[in-house]
Amino acid sequence: MTDDRNGAGDLAARVVGSAAHDIGGFIRAQREAAQVSMRQLAALAGVSNPYLSQIERGLRKPSAEVLAQIAKGLRVSSEVLYVQAGYLEERTHGPVRDALLADTAVTERQKQVLLEIYESFCRENDPARTDEAEDAPGTQSRAAGASTSDIQIEQENTDD
Q1: Does any domain span residue 99?
Q2: C-alpha span between 76 and 68 (Å, rounded)
Q3: Nearest-CA neighbor of 123 among 101, 110, 108, 139?
Q4: What is the extent of the structural domain holding 142?
Q5: pTM
Q6: Which of 10, 31, 91, 160 lies at a C-alpha separation of 20 to 30 Å from 97?
Q7: In total, how many domains does the chain have?
Q8: What does the buried/exposed string (b/e) look like for 134-151 if buried means 16 or more CB atoms within 10 Å of the residue's CB?
Q9: 58 and 123 share a domain?
Q10: Per-residue pLDDT at 89 exceeds 80
Q11: What span, in angstroms and rounded, lies between the C-alpha atoms of 95 and 24?
Q12: Is residue 143 part of a domain?
């Protein structure tokens, strides 16, 4: 019976190790693409250089909090790292949303604003989505925000 327990433990360790390795490789690839040194990212994320190295090599699996700090340092969406680490299930989204979330040239706040604007245009152009959006909690305030910005843009254009 001890062998069965060890077998199950080994399997669990391999699964966790695989997930840690996947997120570590992903973080390393994102860091290299952003041309950030490991030391710089460790400082930005508030973790030690050796700990970040262990994460990248798949020896440690970071907590959600550490992932959020790493995402901030890399200027990528926390959601992307959470999905990669297995903390969130991947949701199917369109290519526009995926590209925006992966873009390192845009801050987290800018990404959220752009996504809200994009979603408001999609709702405006698709009546079925408008009905769904009105039923979802918290979306009416976003729609109102979009209308206000539309008015501000119109006012700016008429002032010229």
Answers
A1: no
A2: 9
A3: 139
A4: 107-159
A5: 0.51
A6: 31
A7: 2
A8: eeeeebeebbeebeeeee
A9: no
A10: no
A11: 24
A12: yes
